Structure formats: C-alpha cells, structure tokens
Amino acid sequence: MLLHGIFPPITTPFYPDGNLYFKKLEANVERYSKTPVAGLVALGSTGEAIFLSDQERRDVLKSTREAAAPNKVLIAGTGIESAVETLRLTEYAAELGYDVAMVRTPHYYKKQMQPANILAFYRTVADRSPLPVIIYNFPQATGYDIPVESVIELAEHPNLIGMKESSGDVEKVHRMVEGTQHVKRTATVTETFDAVTPRMLKAANQSNGQGGELVQVGTLAGAAKQSSSAVSVVAGLKTRQKEVGFQVLVGAAQKFDPSLQAGAVGGILAFADAAPTACYEIYAAWKEGDVELARLKQERIVKAAQRVVGELGIPGMKHAMDLNGYFGGPVRLPLLPLTADLKSEVEHLMADIRN
Questions:
Q1: Which of 102, 127, 199, 293 qualifies as a cystine partner to 97, CB 3.0-4.6 A?
Q2: What whole-number distance in Å separates Cα of residue 272 and Cα of residue 267?
Q3: Closest Cα partner for 186 from 134, 126, 240?
C-alpha cells in the first residue's frame, strides 16, 4: 500500500468539561479531506490517545472514518502496551474500514524491551493483524528508541510495510532506508500514482453500482507481480503497480526536507494539523526535484514547527489550529492550556503560515 505524502495525525477535540466533541472532530476531518494531504492518522500521539478510554478510542476511530473522504488513506493508531490489546483495537479498526495500523513501540517495562521482545511483539501483531502494519517510534515520549538493526530485521515481514520515525534523527532515517533497500514490494496505485486501498475500491464499486465487495489487501500490496507501466481496471478504477519497498515516514516537520533527502517517502507531521498545505508544499517541491524551493519551504516553517510542536506540544498545536480555522480547543489533564504569553508567541510564529 502506498504511504507517500503528508498525513496529519489529527487531534482529538474536547468540550471544556473533557468530553469528546465529535462535531468538531468531524468538521476537522472534512476540512483535511479537502487539502492535498495523502491521508489521516487517528489516535496518534497528537490525538492524546494515551488519555482516552478504550471506548473513546473506538468512538474516535468510528467518527473519523465516517467523516473522511474516500480518497484519503486512513491510518489507525492501535498500539497499546500488550500485543493482545493492540490486536483487539486493530481488528476493530479493520472492521471500520481503516487501511493501515500504526503500532507504537511498547515501552513501559523499558529494561525488558530488548531486541528479542520487540521482534516478538511486532511479528506477533503483524502475523495476526488484518491490516498492514507500520512501526511507530517516538523516543521523546516513550523513552525507548528502537534500534536500526531491529527495524531492518522487522522489515522482512510481509505485513510490516513501513514505519513512522519521530526521533528527528536524519542519520537514523538514512541508515534505515539503506538497510531496507533489499526489501522489494509493489503497491497498487491509480493511473496518476495516488494510493489505492480496499476502502477506496469499495466506494468505487458502490458508485458504479457494482456492489461493495472488498479486494484482498494482498492484491493491493502487489502480491501479483506485474509491470509498473501496465494499466489495469479494478472496480472501475484505472490502476497500475508502483515499487515502494519498506516505506519510512518521519514525524519531525522541522527536519522534513532533510529527511526526504535521506530517503523518507513522506511524513506523519503534527505540524500539518495546523498547516497541512505548508507541509505539503515541501513534499511537492521535493517530489518535483526542486531542491531550492523545497529548502525555502522548509525554512518557512522551521521555527514554528520546532517551538509549537517540539517544545509546546499538544497545547501549542491546538492553539495553532484555532488560529488557522481548525478546532483545537482544550487539552486533557495533566496537560494544561497555554498561558497568555505563550499564546501570543504561537500567534507570532504562525502569522505567516495561514492555511
């Protein structure tokens, strides 16, 4: 499955009393669906998933799925500390029609998180998951940084199709890309090289009056080898095959262009929650081979991304969203809202990044 491009890891809106604000969630998702992002991530770190109950997680997944446009790839953050609970949430996401499961590294028992533990965890999840899986590494939050060697070994698993690397370590991205080059995979894409997923084919079937049968994930993952130049018609869509390999996405918007130069294929960027177009412009310039324009677009957001996301975190990100027409709103305790001075700082940083 193709994971190239920009994926906002959407925030979870709350009422002032802490209850989920579904109308605002749906409004945000609908607006993101009109931007050039490739897809959306629900229940990522920026979504405060760690603060939600199991039922709330399921409700957020359902509401996001219902509001999203059919042409956007949907990624569900389903990582929980145990493999059993991770699989339960992954299975629910699959029932809803999500395309990919993003599973963060288990980390609570840090001393026991040796390579053998991590390899066993991800292989068990990938073996049993009804969805393709991407690894999620966020050492700033978890205190655990998955070794490059473990990633290279896990990349051999046919259902582990990529990873989100949020450490901000560009050299690590380069080493992972280099170490997984031998993994050869293809993905089904549209005639214009956009992603195709079972949910998209189901929607195409229904719009063509052909029913709503899902196509097997293996088919879309390129299990049947064919020429990348050959065009086939699947569920009324003109499709072709694209070589994708093991796909590395990054989470640090302030280092997005250097990460693309190092071999990343896109980003799951919290900064895209407030500025999806600004992030996409970096990707588009890189994709077109315009090195200078990509650098200029990167420089435009560096300070804001570093301060708002990297330092102020979710409260800063939600305020930036409020400034740009999305609903950020309050955070959940133990997170606290920004002070008036910090709000002014965010407003200054975002003044020229309105999209």
A1: 199
A2: 9
A3: 240
Which of 354, 97, 275 lies closest to 203 in space, CA to CA? 97
**Which stretches of the chain score pLDDT less than 50?**
212-215, 222-226
The residue annotated as part of the active site, out of 24, 72, 164, 202, is: 164
| Exposure string over 170-205, b if 16+ CB within 10 A, otherwise e | bebbbbbbebbeebebbbbbbeeebbbbbbbbbbbb
Strand 100-104, strand 232-234: pairing: unpaired
Per-residue model confidence (pLDDT) at position 246: 98
Distance CA 82, CA 269 (A): 26
Is the separation of the CB atoms in 274 and 287 below 8 Å? Answer: no
Burial of 208 (0-12, 13-18, 19+ CB in 10 A): exposed
Whether the Cβ atoms of residue 18 and residue 51 lie closer than 8 Å to each other = no
Scanning the structure block, which residue is given the tokens 């009804």? 130
Residue 343 bears catalytic tag: no
Q: What is the pLDDT of residue 213?
A: 46
Cα end-to-end span (Å), the chain: 28
Q: Is 164 a catalytic residue?
A: yes
Pairing between β-strand 5-6 and β-strand 39-42 as defined by DSSP bridges: unpaired
pTM greater than 0.85 (yes/no): yes
Which residue among the candidates 21, 98, 136, 280 is catalytic per the annotation? 136
How, if at all, do strands 237-243 and 232-234 pair?
antiparallel
Give the CA distances from residue 41 to residues 8, 190, 269, in Å, rounded to whole numbers and listed in that order. Answer: 6, 21, 10
pLDDT in tens, 254-286: 999 999 999 999 999 999 999 999 999 999 999
